[in-house]
Amino acid sequence: MRLSQFHLATSKEVPADAELPSHKLMLRAGMIRKLASGLYTWTPLGLRVMRKVEAVVREEMNRAGALEMLMPSVQPRELWEESGRWEKFGNQLLKMKDRKEQDFCYGPTHEEVITDFARNELKSYKQLPLNFYQIQTKFRDEIRPRFGVMRAREFLMKDAYSFHLTEESLAETYQVMYEAYTRIFTRLGLKFRAVDADTGAIGGSASNEFQVLADSGEDAIAFSDGSNYAANIEKAEALAPTTERPAPSAELTLVPTPTQRTIDDVSRALSVSPSQCVKTIIVRGVKGLVALCVRGDHELNEVKASHLAELPDESVLASEEEIVAAIGTRPGFIGPVGLPDSIPVIVDRDAAVLADFVCGGNKDGTHYTGANWVRDARIDRVADLRQVVDGDASPDGKGTLRLARGIEVGHIFQLGQKYAEAMGASVLDDQGKLATMYMGCYGIGVSRIVAAAIEQRHDEAGMIWTDAMAPWRIAVCVINPKNSPEVAAAAEALYQELTAAGIEAVLDDRGLRAGSMFADMELLGIPHRVVVSERGIAAGTLEYRQRTESEARAITREDLLLLLA
Ligand code: ATP
Ligand code: MG
Fold this sequence. Notes:
By secondary structure, the chain is α+β, with helices and mostly antiparallel strands. Helices cover 27% and strands 28% of the residues. Strands 3, 7, 8, 9, 10, 11, 12, 20 and 23 form a nine-stranded mixed sheet that branches. A five-stranded mixed sheet has the order 27-26-28-29-30, sandwiched between helices. Strands 14-15-16-19 form a four-stranded mixed sheet. Helix 1 crosses helix 12 (446-456) and helix 2 (44-63) crosses helix 6 (167-187). The relative contact order is 0.14. The chain binds adenosine-5'-triphosphate and magnesium ion. Adenosine-5'-triphosphate is lined by residues 109, 140, 142, 151-152, 155, 157, 408-411, 443, 445, 447-448.
């Protein structure tokens, strides 16, 4: 590409509404332009990078035996009614009507459409297993679109769906996808981890997320320093403490805490550590309110809580009015002592081994000290309810948990029979009997990967692409081409030679000052740069610099071609 014929629109201005380095740099380099909240245009420059990601994804999916296809992004309501998700998907689903007043949605994902396809196409177990994929635009009406294309409303996803006669066959393909994903993210040069993920409302037996490690990541992941264990913090188990609950030694005493409503304030006022306090959270259960108790220094893990039989899939905190009506006091003063029998008390494993603890007094402006389970407060059930913290024992018994932040770029899932059952997708088995198929689904956030890679690889001057993702591998910068036909001709010849050798090169023939040209190429993160100048031609060399190096060096044409081969 000759830059004089390209649309390059870089800017030195740091965009005011961009928080993350990736978002700022993508705007400054002119890779994306915002159309509306969560909607972005990919410019010719940005698209070059996204297509690189797509190419690696496509190659590895094909290599793993998956078959590419393309489904419509607009989907009829009827299919979503069959799976039960027309309502359940909630406000993320963008719904619309056609001219006949029929309901449609813009696909946020394609389980329904592919299951419909499979039930029509697949008749016999002999056709299985099959794995279909597409690379296609999705729309999700995210509550908080942010960070540019990282959490957009419209984004590009690779989604794959596999079909099987048996669970074992599903597990095999799942493993093949796990390995394909590992190759994809390795080839793209990303630092990532595959972590165990929560299977959520879908159930299913196994799920892994692929997380690109970055401090700005929205996800927290826990990994062991002594084994391969790694999990999304939503899923990471907090092991039961090895100590038993001590016998009560203090008397239950109601003390005034007129203005102290948070654990911090209460523990300071009563001079006890937060780990000696019990925090009580009242949520809406399936049948009425439920009390969840965790230690004062721990956080409730809402995903774990949502798996309790007493709670719906998405539990919601009870409102102040509901709490006052049921318990007679406001949030901040709630505790397990003397709660009405109608409210089940579910206690986290660590909170359950406390004795003589501090908790809310269930009367405005009061707390109890010296509270004890059983003697003073009911425990209906002990469960793992809390978020793990750095330093916890690893759930596999090997090593200690450390926490890191991650950006979810891929998610693989053994769905089992959920969709096939709901939508009647079955084949004849070897006995001639109808058998419901097993399904797996496998997603990759193609557009999100572009931003995630920048989060991991950038510096003051701009982006730093690996060769696999760079818009061009090498920039040929020409100094003063207008004044020196010889220089212009040499640069053109080098550009032609690189291109003929299959090396993607960009010729900066815009005639800018060297400084501006170099600043642009650094902002764009082109991995290699050569400068063609009068001085170099006289010396028979080119000035070469790698994006990650601080110094340029002289190199011959031959060595340059060898280096890039
Ligand atoms: P998240 O937890 O980040 O919302 P998700 O669990 O909803 O993601 P999946 O349904 O597993 O996402 O979708 C597959 C992949 O699509 C994700 O791993 C992610 O990389 C990408 N993705 C999901 N939502 C968005 C979005 N709003 N913008 C960009 N990419 C997204
Ligand atoms: Mg996910």
